[in-house]
Design a protein that fits this description.
Order of helices and strands: EEEHEEHEHHHEHEHEEHEHEEH
Structural class: alpha/beta
CATH topology of the largest domain: Rossmann fold
Number of helices: 10
Number of domains: 2
Oligomer: single chain
Helix content: 25-40%
CATH superfamily of the largest domain: P-loop containing nucleotide triphosphate hydrolases
Distance between the termini: 35 Å
CATH architecture of the largest domain: 3-Layer(aba) Sandwich
Strand content: 25-35%
Length: 275
């Protein structure tokens, strides 16, 4: 499907030395698309996102959102953007309610805010000092702050960090609904099931370089491995073929193994842990 590109990153490079940084990163996110950005800590996900937010000036290359320069026109971009950082910073002496009121005032939103709806959806209790809240409650406050002005574009860096499985599941369903409303979403996550359930396409970054960008379906097709088993009798071959959805040729049965997204991810990382 031909989509208008909302987020556009072209040859983005930021070299911190010693192999750290991002190098020649290019990808686009279309209108109404959820794009998954995968990679272990230190791979370059947050550095890329910080460029999109206008926090870092590119050494070379460029990134735009809705045709606006992320570095030069970040103030324009912020009006239609929702952001959840990987490490959410709060004014710890504020209560959750005071923080959300501050964000509402900063964004100039009032009665049209989705704040109440979101607080009910994610069971947010905004009372009490933020510094005394659990990580999960702080994360939920961050989700409400990012979505309550109903932005068209969302940049989410590990958005379900600290949430319990029930809330993670609720968030995944919510993202699906937001996508249905035409929202454009860049989602960085470590949770493979979350990415599989929400994302149209996936970009995998390794050591600052984008190693693949494709749909989950196409990634799976590229990593399907057929193997052939020879059985002792036709009855066994028929049973084996039926059980594993294989193709039988006499005593031989060919089965195609489908890999999970996590297996595919580890393929690009050479099967080693890089966290």
């Amino acid at each position: 499907m031909d989509k208008t590109d909302i987020i556009n990153i072209e040859n983005l490079t930021r070299d911190y030395g010693n192999g750290k940084g991002i190098f020649d990163v290019s990808f686009q996110v279309g209108k109404g698309e959820v794009f998954g950005f995968l990679g272990p800590n230190g791979a370059g996900k947050t550095t890329t996102i910080r460029h999109l937010m206008g926090f870092i000036k590119p050494k070379s290359g460029a990134c735009t959102i809705n045709g606006h320069s992320c570095w030069k026109e970040s103030d324009v971009i912020q009006r239609t953007l929702g952001y959840i950082p990987g490490e959410i910073s709060f004014f710890d002496d504020m209560t959750g309610a005071e923080f959300l009121k501050f964000i509402s005032k900063y964004r100039g939103i009032g009665c049209n805010s989705r704040q109440k709806e979101l607080m009910e959806l994610f069971d947010v209790n905004p009372k009490g000092k933020i510094k005394k809240m659990s990580k999960g409650m702080k994360q939920k406050i961050g989700i409400v702050a990012a979505f309550m002005h109903d932005p068209d574009i969302l940049i989410l860096d590990e958005p379900t960090s600290g949430l319990d499985p029930l809330m993670q599941n609720r968030f995944v369903k919510f993202i699906g609904e937001e996508k249905g409303r035409g929202k454009t979403i860049l989602l960085s996550s470590h949770i493979f099931e979350e990415v599989e359930r929400t994302c149209d396409r996936i970009g995998i970054i390794r050591e600052g370089k984008l190693v693949t960008v494709d749909s989950v379906e196409e990634l799976r097709k590229r990593h399907m491995y057929p193997y052939t088993v020879t059985l002792d009798s036709e009855n066994e071959a028929k049973g084996f073929a039926k059980a594993f959805d294989g193709k039988r040729d006499g005593l031989k049965v060919t089965v195609t193994a489908k890999q999970s997204l996590e297996d595919i991810f580890m393929h690009y990382y050479g099967g080693r842990e890089d966290d």
